[in-house]
Amino acid sequence: MLRIAVPNKGSLSGPAAEMLHEAGYQQRRESKELRIVDPVNEVEFFYLRPRDIAIYVASGQLDIGLTGRDLLIDSGADAEEILPLGFARSTFRYACKPGTIGGLADLAGKTVATSYEGIVAAHLAEHGIDASVVHLDGAVETAIQLGVAQVIADVVETGTSLRNAGLEVVAEPIMKSEAVVIRRTGSDAEDPKVQQFLRRLQGVLVARTYVMMDYDCRVEQLEKAVALTPGLESPTVSPLHNEGWVAVRAMVPAKEAQRIMDDLYDIGARAILTTAIHACRL
């Protein structure tokens, strides 16, 4: 069986389980379950702490895992990203008291507090900055107030928490993270079971991004309509009973669906419908 590590808690857990369910895999019914077997799909899932997943995958005891890019890099484990999953996005930034740090070079000689020591140390080394890194678990905003550090490095979404703590973001982002699928570095990239798993997840990603659009239009407007809905390869066009009319079907980006419907209506298309895509293979 394919052995897969899945986050057991935190912001990664729920979306990961939902994506796996959409991909047709059995998931646990209770949060206390640490292991389940999906015999139909020949997969065994292990529910682990998100921070530990890269370590388990790198050891070779598990074939692949779902975790955060930040956690993969921070672990320093001998594992690599093979598929971004598009959820749990975050940005890592430096922050400090207003007016104390102008840019990245000003971090030299300072102490940086963070929960992601591996990421920060690697970033500083990459830019030749000689600074100390202090590891703290949990919220790090108070580290400056208590004199533990002059700078913090943490996940920044809206920046509200930082402003409430009297801090401001400085320098360029350290990195952008999201949920990813990982494997042990150097493992078989063409493993059929792994490839099938990846195809299923890619199918979910596409299904979430596109909708199926159907509409009727007159033959003389078909070229204009097809230009608006080219599909992936090309749209499906079928003649209707009424002469001079055709039915068109194509996948379109979900974010653009309403605009495309307006443009189709303006050129004379009618009976314009969109339907959700639950699964696909490209």
TrEMBL record:
* NCBIfam families cross-referenced by the UniProt entry: hisG, HisG_C-term
Q: Which family does it belong to?
A: Belongs to the ATP phosphoribosyltransferase family. Long subfamily.
Please give the CDD domains that the UniProt record associates with this protein.
PBP2_HisGL1 (cd13591)
Query: What is the activity regulation comment for this entry?
Result: Feedback inhibited by histidine.
Q: Return the Pfam families for the record.
A: HisG (PF01634), HisG_C (PF08029)
Question: Histidine biosynthesis HisG C-terminal domain location, by residue?
Answer: 207-278
Q: Which SUPFAM superfamilies match?
A: GlnB-like, Periplasmic binding protein-like II
- Listed name of the protein: ATP phosphoribosyltransferase
GO annotations of cellular component type: cytoplasm
Keywords (alphabetical) are: Amino-acid biosynthesis, ATP-binding, Cytoplasm, Glycosyltransferase, Histidine biosynthesis, Magnesium, Metal-binding, Nucleotide-binding, Transferase
Its Enzyme Commission number(s) read 2.4.2.17
Q: Where is the ATP phosphoribosyltransferase catalytic domain?
A: 49-203
InterPro entries noted in UniProt: ATP-PRT_HisG_long, ATP_PRibTrfase_cat, ATP_PRibTrfase_HisG, HisG_C, N-reg_PII-like_a/b, N-reg_PII/ATP_PRibTrfase_C
First-level EC class: transferase
> Which species expresses this protein natively?
Streptomyces violarus
Which Gene Ontology MF annotations are present? Answer: ATP binding; ATP phosphoribosyltransferase activity; magnesium ion binding
Protein's pathway: Amino-acid biosynthesis; L-histidine biosynthesis; L-histidine from 5-phospho-alpha-D-ribose 1-diphosphate: step 1/9
Task: Give me the reactions it catalyses.
Answer: 1-(5-phospho-beta-D-ribosyl)-ATP + diphosphate = 5-phospho-alpha-D-ribose 1-diphosphate + ATP
> Would you kindly state one Gene Ontology biological process term found in this protein's UniProt entry?
L-histidine biosynthetic process
